[in-house]
Amino acid sequence: MSNPLVQAFFVGRAVAEVINERVEVALTDALSELGKFDAEAREQLHQFTEEVIARANRAAEAAETGATTTGSSVDGAGSTDLQAEIDELRAEIALLRTELQKYRSTSK
User: Fold this and answer.
1) Are 37 and 100 in contact (CB under 8 A)?
2) In terms of pTM, does the model score above 0.90?
3) Nearby residues of 81 by Cβ (< 8 Å), 6 or more positions away
């Protein structure tokens, strides 16, 4: 390549190709992460909805039988389960916040 104009053309073309490939990879990765986050969020929402409906059905059944539900257990075992549920929900919220921060940092 003795002609500097031809050399500049091929260098510019190579730069454009490399930039195009890197943008494509970055966009693909970002869309993949977004899809994964969306799927996880939908699954969490689905599980939450199922749990709410199940609890509402149990409360309705208990009301029909005349039993009263206060949300706490008499023997104390329910409070341990309740605390475990709260801890799990807090962990899930922390995980979702982390994923959201990752998504926000990659989208900038």
Assistant:
1) yes
2) no
3) 73
